[in-house]
Write a sequence for this structure.
């Protein structure tokens, strides 16, 4: 792809115009976490509160503790996730995290 191309035109929305969405895998098996190498990823945490977040790269994270309600910008969609969930945020997604219980997580950004 040419670096000058418009990234907006490269994304194709799913039928119904859903746009970017958050993927949540509830309580994945330990074998899946080992396959991904989750425990070698950096750790991050935050207190309760509301935080605007924009993902400039695709992020995968595994929550060790906490609970979040993510309100996707430009949508009425709210995605809840918490301790034990493996969550993927697509590149380009903007949302507000409503952290209802302090978060501790492993995370990884895709390099592409």
């Amino acid at each position: 792809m040419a670096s000058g191309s418009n990234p907006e035109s490269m994304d194709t929305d799913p039928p119904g115009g859903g746009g970017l969405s958050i993927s949540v895998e509830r309580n994945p098996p330990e074998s899946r976490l080992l396959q991904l190498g989750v425990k070698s990823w950096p750790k991050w945490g935050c207190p309760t509160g509301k935080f605007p977040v924009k993902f400039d790269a695709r992020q995968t994270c595994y929550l060790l503790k906490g609970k979040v309600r993510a309100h996707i910008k430009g949508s009425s969609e709210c995605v809840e996730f918490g301790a034990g969930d493996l969550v993927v945020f697509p590149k380009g997604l903007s949302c507000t995290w409503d952290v209802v219980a302090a978060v501790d997580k492993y995370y990884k950004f895709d390099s592409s």
